[in-house]
Amino acid sequence: MTVGLEHYLAVSFLLFALGLFGVVMRRNVLVMYMSLELMLNAANLALVSFSRFNNKLDGQVLVFFIITVAAAEVSVGLALIVALYRRRRSAHVEDLNTMKL
Amino acid sequence: MKYDILPWLILFVPLLSAAVITLFTLKYRNVSALLSIGAIVIGFISTVTFIAANGWASSEYTINWLSIGTLNIDFGLKLDRLSEMMMLIVTGVGGAIHIYSYGYMDADRSKARFFAFMSLFTFSMLGIVLANNFIELFIFWELVGVSSYLLIGFWFEKPSAADAAKKAFFTNRLGDFGFLVGIIMLWAWSQGGLNLLNFDAANGFVKNIVAARLQPPTGDVFGDLVPFTIIGLLIFCGAAGKSAQFPLHVWLPDAMEGPTPVSALIHAATMVAAGVYMLCRVFFILTPDALHVIAYIGGFTALLAALIAVQQNDIKRILAYSTLSQLGYMVMAVGLAGPTPAMFHLTTHAFFKALLFLAAGSIIHALHEEQDIWKMGGLRDKMGITFWTFLIGTLALSGVPPFSGFYSKDSILGQALDQKNYLLFAVGVGVAGLTTFYMFRLFYVALVGSPRTATAGHAHESPAVMTWPLVVLALFSVIGGVIGASGIFDAQFSGEVSSPSLVHRILEPLHSPVAMVSGLIMVAVGWFAARAFYLNVETDPLPAKLGGLATAMKNRFYFDEIYEATFIRAHDFIAAVADWIDRWLLEGFCIGLIRGGTDFTGRALRLVQTGNLQTYALLFALGVAVVLYLVLIK
User: Fold this and answer.
1) What is the pLDDT of residue B222?
2) Which residues 43-72 of A are in CB contact (within 8 Å) with B?
3) pLDDT, tens digit, for every residue of B132-151?
4) Short-list B133, B127, B131, CA closest to B196
5) SS3 letters for B227-273?
6) Alpha-carbon span B426 to B432, nearest angstrom
7) pLDDT exceeding 70 applies to what percent of chain B?
8) In this structure, how many other beta carbons lie within 10 angstroms of the beta carbon of residue B336?
């Protein structure tokens, strides 16, 4: 059996679904954040596989951008979470409900 | 035309005075009073100068005020014999009353405000007199209504004064509504093709139509002039409101709640005469049918008011009903196709009725605001000038020769005979008798005999600033009939300029001896009856003799009560229905439904906002899934 595009995409989909499941179900903000990163990497995997199977470099270029932006985003996001934790003494999402009226 | 600037000056100086008083000098009572008096005296002097320089010539000054499509409205001044005479009356009689007010209002703390209103009134009244088109006339007409409202309600702390002001304003508005509809109909008649709202243009237009319809084969003026009759009667509605003709007469007696100089100036001499003046100004538009209606309304008002006046006990109310009755005379004269006698009577009436009111004011002032004639008496020795001038006013109003009232009243009676309208002639003669009766009743009870109260016993003559205007007005009440006012109006309306000699003018009534003799007999009857009943009596002997009729007269024939029970009740009912519709149907149902619906939806949607980050994330993901499904698969 040869490994084709579908397999890579299936893995990518599974990773994305796992990430989404983690974001929706897990209560710890840090874990939710990790799940978000997982979703990003699922997208990266899909882009790389499209690039490989279509013989075009555009996808890989895009992935580099995503990795760069994700690194910046992680630093900002982690800083926010740390600041939030210091203020609230909690990293649980149930405690962060001030957006409610 | 020499001194073209003067008419503008005459009109706008009082407005300037009102503005200056209101804006700058409200704190300085005497400065304000002098400003206002100065404005009207300047007006009088300017009027005299203008007439002296130009004779009784006619001219018109116009400024285009606004022009929309074919609708052109000017702001203009129309000067002819009619308006010039009226200006003399307004500024002359008005000036005397302004000066008198300086003394009368001296104790009032709002003297400055009073004079500001008086100047505003003078401006508005001169505007009516000088207007050269219907719209301008209407604007000043309403301004006069406002100043009248302000002055009746001058002592607004008194609920009765505030109510009287409202009543006067509403009743006038009722008439003015008809007036406005009439003006619009007249304009619509020309289909906007003519500058018809100008008096001269309208005059020519009406003349052409009447001439065209008089041609054979139509020949029948009456049938074809129905629209004109309607327009004329609608315009008469305005006059009926201002001149307090039946059935809109109820406001005038209540208007006596205002200060007495106001009653003299506005509700006797000038404003209420504006209706008559306006009818004479637009006389060309009144068809024979309309004139008929006007004449009978005038006659009925004259009789009704004279009957009511017989049993009133408040000195100002007696004079108010007398004013109503005399206005009825004037309107009747207009209706009998006699604008000349109407304007003649208006002129003399302005003199002697202003005099009577001012003299009554002097008495009220001396008796510390006492207005009941049965609490007066014995004023001859204590208030000499007031007593004698009041007597002159009474004689003039009753129509005793050679006082002015005799000439003007006789000309009205003569006009009725000329028109062969014997019913209205009889009414006129009867009213003349009643007038003499109630005026001498007032005279014998309030001024002659012995004082009935201690206050009346200690009365003092008023200061000179109040008595001099009385003397001047008394002089004109005596000679007003023979100074040639009649000839000037005649020249205006018939176009024949004649200048009869003084002797000729004095003997004028001999032209219709029947009118003169019957008038004089009724005056004598009225006088003797009043003397027999009221000389040296303590209580009114009439109620015992007349029974129910006297009660009805005393209660003003229950007109106020009838209006209260019918129109006002009906109006209240309509208002209640409208209120119900507004409150429950519009606000409760329509607005309530929309408001309630929005509120409910809002509350329901609020539940979605849980504040839980993960719910949002899930919903977001579901939303993306739905969008993807729609875009990709469907």
Assistant:
1) 47
2) none
3) 888 889 999 999 999 999 98
4) B133
5) HHHHHHHHHHHHHHHHCCCCCCCCHHHHHHHCCHHHHHHHHHHCHHH
6) 10
7) 96
8) 27
| Contacts (Cβ under 8 Å, ≥6 apart) of B29 | B111, B112
- Residue of A24, A28, A100 to mutate, testing the B interface (most B Cβ within 10 Å of its Cβ): A24
pLDDT of residue B539: 75
Q: Which of B371, B144, B374, B354 is nearest to B257 (CA)?
A: B371
Contact B511, B414 (CB under 8 A): yes
Sign of torsion over alpha carbons B105, B111, B112, B113: negative
Q: Could you give the CA distance from residue B222 to residue B436 in angstroms, rounded to a whole number? A: 39
**In sequence order, which ranges of chain A are alpha helices (DSSP H)?**
5-25, 29-54, 58-88
Tell me how far apart the alpha carbons of residues B496 and B491 are, in angstroms, rounded to a whole number: 5
Residue of chain A whose Cα is closest to the Cα of B612: A97
Q: Cα–Cα distance between B477 and B473 in angstroms, integer?
A: 6
Tens digits of per-residue pLDDT, B112-121? 888 999 999 9
Task: Give Cβ neighbours of residue B548 (< 8 Å, ≥ 6 apart).
Answer: none
Cβ pair B614:A24 closer than 8 A: yes
One-letter amino acid at B365 equals: H
| Contact partners, residue B330, CB within 8 Å, separation at least 6 | B243, B273, B276, B298, B342, B345, B346, B349, B412
Q: Residue B610 and residue A93: Cβ atoms within 8 Å?
A: no
Chain B residues touching A31 at Cβ < 8 A: none
Closest B-chain CA to A32: B614
Q: A99 by DSSP, 3-state: which?
A: coil
| pLDDT one-digit tens code per residue, B211-229 | 766 665 554 544 567 777 8
What are the tokens at B187? Answer: 């304009």
Q: Which residues of B282-293 are buried (b: 16+ CB within 10 A; e: fewer)?
A: bbebbbebbbbe
Query: What are the backbone angles phi and psi of residue B198, rounded to the nearest 5°?
Result: -75, 140
CA distances for B92 relative to B257, B266, B471, B559, angstroms: 24, 14, 14, 35
pLDDT tens string B64-92: 888 877 777 888 888 888 888 889 889 98
DSSP B510: G
CB of A96 within 8 Å of a chain B CB? The answer is yes
For chain A, what is the mean pLDDT? 89
CB–CB of B295/B279 below 8 Å?
Answer: no
Residues 8-37 of A with CB under 8 A from B: 20, 23-25, 32
Is residue B626 within 8 angstroms of chain A, CB to CB?
no
B613 touches chain A (CB under 8 A): yes
ipTM (interface predicted TM): 0.82
What is the distance between the alpha carbons of residues A55 and B72, in angstroms, rounded to a whole number?
84
Do residue B606 and residue A97 have CB atoms under 8 angstroms apart?
A: no
User: A93–B611: do the CB atoms touch at under 8 Å?
Assistant: no
